[in-house]
């Protein structure tokens, strides 16, 4: 419950146009200090939970094990974690490409789901809580690779999970 409250606080901060990406290049020690805030840690943790749920716990743990083994007593970059996950998924999913859409741009998407009979359509757009004119940027280029999981009347989350990766502005 505490973590959920932290997630909502981080989302509120991340929905401002003055937010920052989880990962970005830095030029000075001051910029490094600015990066290590609640937004980076909580959003980062939330993204790892999202990835774990999408890949399944076993695949995620195997990817973490490969990552820890490959970088034992060494340094690593975020791409190294995604490469380890790619190694475990055997190229069936480009985890690096998916996760870069989350860590290299600020904010998060609002996903709208519309049902018409048996057809479902989804679309994404950047969610902005409050527009700050001095920090405004165009939202046309924002695109996330959003793992969507769902259930049907024939299955539930414990028996079968259907998954869809929304990697365009809209899909069916």
Tell me what you see in this structure.
The chain has 172 residues and is of the alpha+beta class. The protein has two domains: 3-104, Neutral Protease, domain 2; 108-171, Immunoglobulin-like, CATH 2.60.40.1910. It has helices at 2-14, 29-35, 38-55, 57-70, 78-89, 95-103; strands at 109-116, 119-126, 146-150, 162-166, 170-171. α1 (2-14) packs across α3 (38-55) and α3 packs across α4. The longest helix is centred in the N-terminal third of the chain and has 18 residues, at 38-55.
Keywords:
single chain; 172 residues; alpha+beta; Neutral Protease, domain 2; Immunoglobulin-like; 2 domains; 3-stranded antiparallel β-sheet; two-stranded antiparallel ribbon; 6 helices; 5 strands; globular; peptide binding; aminopeptidase; protease
Give the topology.
Elements: H1 2-14, H2 29-35, H3 38-55, H4 57-70, H5 78-89, H6 95-103, E1 109-116, E2 119-126, E3 146-150, E4 162-166, E5 170-171
Antiparallel strand pairs: 1-2, 2-5, 3-4
Protein name: LCAP aminopeptidase
GO molecular function: metalloaminopeptidase activity; peptide binding; zinc ion binding
Keywords: Aminopeptidase, Hydrolase, Protease
Task: State the share of residues found in helices, binned by percent.
Answer: 40-55%
The structure class reads alpha+beta
Average pLDDT number: 85
Task: Sketch the major β-sheet.
Answer: 3 strands, antiparallel
- Output the radius of gyration: 17 Å
Termini gap = 33 Å
- In CATH terms, what is the fold-level topology of the largest domain? Neutral Protease, domain 2
Strand order of the largest sheet: 1-2-5
CATH architecture of the largest domain: Orthogonal Bundle
Instruction: Give the CATH H-level superfamily of the largest domain.
Output: Neutral Protease Domain 2
H/E order of the elements? HHHHHHEEEEE
Helix segment count? Answer: 6
Quickly name the level 1 CATH class of the largest domain: Mainly Alpha
Query: Approximately what portion of the residues adopt beta-strand conformation?
Result: 15-25%
Shape: globular
Unreliably modeled segments: none
Total DSSP E strands: 5
Task: Give the domain tally.
Answer: 2
